[in-house]
Amino acid sequence: MDAEDAEDAEDAVGLAGMDAQVVVVGAGPVGLLLAGELRLGGAHVVVLERRTAPITESRASTLHARTMEIFDQRGLLGPLGVPARETRGHFGGVPLDFGRLDSRYPGLWKVLQVRTEALLGQWATGLGADVRRGHELTALTERAGHVEAEAVGPEGTVRLRARYVVGCDGEDSTVRRLAGFGFPGSDASRELLRADVAGIDIPDRRFQRFADGLAVAARRADGVTRVMVHEFAGRPEVRTGAPAFAETAAAWARVTGEDISQGTPLWSNAFGNACRQADRYRKNRVLLAGDAAHRQMPVGGQALNLGLQDAMNLGWKLAAHVSGRAPAGLLDTYHQERHAVGARTLADITAQAAILLGGPEVDGLRAVFEELIAVDRAAVHLTGKISGLDTRYGGGPGDDPRLGARLPLHDLETARGPLNAAEPLRSGQGLLLCLCKDGVPDPWPRSTAAPWADRVRTVTAAPVPDGALSGAENVLVRPDGHIAWVDGDADGLRAALGRWFGAPAGV
Ligand SMILES: Cc1cc2nc3c(=O)[nH]c(=O)nc-3n(C[C@H](O)[C@H](O)[C@H](O)COP(=O)(O)OP(=O)(O)OC[C@H]3O[C@@H](n4cnc5c(N)ncnc54)[C@H](O)[C@@H]3O)c2cc1C
């Protein structure tokens, strides 16, 4: 047993002299989803956010299929409404069709980050998360059995004692620095300038390559055009703020020959291909999620979606841990599962950056890529990866390919009528799905799971004819929607319940 395990074993349960069981630093999308997940799992959570009001600027605008499924699993799609959907995405600028993804939500869903944050903020506070705006974390001290977080707020310095602190405070994370996480990787070697501009009339361009650079232009319904430009020979500037629009307009003119300098800039921004990942996602009582854990070029909407999926993986585990229900080692599966997914995604983004931002020297590589993407299996592989649908966690004993994969959100046939498989997950509990052939379920799965009934809901439905669940009779699903066990005997089910949900009640 190492020091972390020993601390875990001794962890006190409940508030027990703490101001919060968990302090989340950062009320961006990742911090807010995590706060909601922690509340759903019964943890007491305080969120410290240095901004006094939510962002209003344009940032990420795409939710991928897996994020839409996650939102469905938490009942968040109703309040979101039906967002605009696109099917055409890309890999490093090479077109890729996301319309054929095997999901209830195939495609790229256009939701501005401000909307996503508002939705998650309402949800988290509605569940009882205590979000304190205008509070900037300035110090972090680990003590025996807890962490002390110091923040400067409207009423001066406040100190909060918490069992755990999670840094969801973005790419320049203070938590990461204060807690001394390693953050290896590379700085940006290339830069893109972008701006949202009113009052210009230029052709839409989708990753159009010119002799000296790359240009993107997309006119929105409100008449505002987002332009993005990269000069192949350019190198990143050392910046202390956003670039002046004149700089972007000048680069645009050099690359495309068009003059947009008379437009009205509404937002300007520069970003590069920096790529770094925290060496660990947990260090004793401090954890990282979202951009705080990984810095990547925001291409193809992967940055935001990757972070939201970190939060979904961590929330139920940390809530179970601080509530004293978690089996040994559960919290550490967060690093094991999400660091691997993060590393894979960063590698993917690095490859995209190379073929997107490289000059004529990558023309051959792009041509080969275009050929490969035209092969159906290659396109399915890449869209599965980028959308997050093919994320599979080490599922435990057995080699069933469904273990660790996500539960497909089929409409299930139940005695009470059709049921979206996402619905039973909305409470944040686990799910035992009994798919009985003749309408009469085997009694043993339900009776085996009975001692976990406070944590795992059992639903009986007809067998699913097609897709990944066809042929399956009993499926155990974690609160984040990933499959923990498929078919087998009562001993196997009992072991899986113990592994993910802890000891049975009364033990
Ligand atoms: C300018 C910009 C443009 C982007 N454009 C795109 C895009 O086009 N496409 C795309 O996919 N992604 C884009 N991204 C990335 C995307 O916005 C992030 O991946 C996403 O916001 C990550 O969410 P997060 O919650 O991890 O971090 P953030 O959204 O960065 O949230 C972190 C929060 O922590 C708070 N905070 C920071 N330090 C402290 C502290 N010491 N104390 C208290 N609070 C603190 C911040 O105020 C912030 O609210 C962009 C990011 C930026 C910054």
Please report the number of helical segments.
Answer: 13
Radius of gyration: 24 Å
Secondary-structure content class: alpha+beta
Q: Which topology of the largest domain does CATH recognise?
A: FAD/NAD(P)-binding domain
What is the helix fraction of residues, given as a range? 25-40%
CATH architecture of the largest domain: 3-Layer(bba) Sandwich
Name the hetero compounds present. Answer: flavin-adenine dinucleotide
Number of beta strands: 27
Number of domains: 4
Q: Distance between termini? A: 22 Å
Tertiary shape = globular
Q: Bin the strand percentage.
A: 25-35%
Low-confidence stretches: none
Tell me, rounded to a whole number, the average pLDDT: 94
CATH class of the largest domain: Alpha Beta
**What's the CATH H-level superfamily name of the largest domain?**
FAD/NAD(P)-binding domain
Brief descriptors of the model:
single chain, 507 residues, alpha+beta, FAD/NAD(P)-binding domain, Alpha-Beta Plaits, 4 domains, 8-stranded mixed sheet, 5-stranded antiparallel sheet, globular, binds flavin-adenine dinucleotide
Describe this entry's structure for a reader:
The protein has 507 residues and is of the alpha+beta class. It folds into four domains: 214 residues, 3-Layer(bba) Sandwich (FAD/NAD(P)-binding domain); 79 residues, no CATH class; 82 residues, Alpha-Beta Plaits (2-Layer Sandwich); 91 residues, Glutaredoxin (3-Layer(aba) Sandwich). 30% of the residues lie in helices and 27% in strands. It contains 13 helices and 27 strands. The strands form seven sheets. Strands 1, 2, 8, 9, 10, 11, 19 and 20 form an eight-stranded mixed sheet that branches. A five-stranded antiparallel sheet has the order 14-15-16-13-17, covered by helices on one side. Helix 2 links the parallel strand 1 and strand 2. Helix 8 runs antiparallel to helix 9. The two termini are 22 Å apart. Bound molecules: flavin-adenine dinucleotide.
